[in-house]
Amino acid sequence: MRRRTCWLAPILATSIVALACTRAEPAERASERPAAAPAAPAPPTPSEPEAPPPEPRDVRFTTSDGVTITGTLRAAAAPDAPLVILVHQLGSDRSEWAPLLERLERTPRIATLAIDLRGHGASTEGDGGATLSWRDFDDATWARTADDVIAAIEFVRGDASGVRPARVGLVGSSIGSTAVIAASARSEGIGPVVAISPGRAYRGFDAITPALALAGHDFLAVVAREEPDSVETASAMGRITSTEPMIVESGAHGVALLRNHVEVLDRVEAVLRRALGAEREG
To answer: Residue span of the signal peptide, if any (predicted)?
Structure first.
């Protein structure tokens, strides 16, 4: 019996060691396994597409001196979207703004109201039904084109327009730039003002005096190098507003600067979007 006990002891000891090694092996192997890769981040939630805007519509409203002004309102889906009023140059009409309208209708959309100044386009009905033509205007009548812009501002802020823009900006071309500067000086809460080919006093209509009210305002003047009078005027306005005019190596005038120079379109769009809080993503 003693011999049997001694013979079994080594076997039992060996079995216990082997069992211990077997049980330890999974733990050792687990420690050698590579760490699991971190979970991939969830894809960003796509932003809601912008609702379709209302169809453009022609609108009419009356100035303080009884002139009926016609314009085209291109609203955004949201009634409180910022809005820009566009004022054409002498002898033209609201259709000249097509290049800029295409830019402002991109998402996020900026609403627009392009008007025909008195005596232009469809705005030929004066007080008492008189027919107006810009060819007959004297200097005093040209100065009253600022009233056309003020009437447009009052229209978009009123119930009849169907919009209630959080901010209103103004863009004018040539003598239209004088009209928007003069109207801005007489109106409260106007946002950015863009003057394309501004003049010191087109048709006797002073642009510098009302520009004094734009000190500290969001402002941009765009001029062609080959129009020295406009360059001088834009530089004076730049000093008043603490802004640098955009001087383009060109002889183009007014809205032709938008049509002929994509960098002008880029700059005007960027200034309007930044000042109106409607910058494009990316």
So the answer is: 1-20
Assess if residue 48 is contained within a domain: no
CB 241 within 8 A of CB 213: no
Note whether 135 and 245 are same-domain residues.
yes
pLDDT per position as a tens digit, 59-110: 999 999 999 999 999 999 999 999 999 999 999 999 999 999 999 999 999 9
Q: Is residue 281 part of a domain?
A: no
Predicted structure pTM score: 0.83
Is residue 155 within 8 Å of residue 187, measured between CB atoms? no
Give the closest residue to 169 by CA, choosing from 178, 159, 160, 181: 181
Residue 50 lies in a domain: no
Q: Which stretches in the chain have pLDDT values below 50? A: 1-33
Q: How far is CA 130 from CA 43, 62, 68, 93, in A?
A: 64, 14, 10, 19
Coil, strand or helix at 68: strand
H or E segment to which residue 253 belongs: none
Work out whether strand 111-115 and strand 83-87 pair parallel, antiparallel, or are unpaired: parallel
Q: Is residue 54 classed exposed, middle or buried when 0-12, 13-18 and 19+ CB atoms within 10 A define those classes?
A: middle
Q: Say how far apart CA 82 and CA 164 lie, in whole Å.
A: 8
Q: pLDDT value at position 196?
A: 98
Q: Within this chain, do residues 154 and 239 fall inside the same structural domain, yes or no?
A: yes
Q: How confident is the model at residue 216, as a pLDDT?
A: 87
Q: Could you tell me if 18 and 135 lie in one domain?
A: no
Structure tokens at 85: 């009023």
Name the domain count of the chain. 2
Residue range of the domain that includes 15: 1-30
In DSSP notation, 101-150 reads HHHHTSSSP-EEEEEPPTTBTTB-B-GGG-B--GGG--HHHHHTHHHHHH
φ, ψ for residue 162, nearest 5 deg: 80, 5
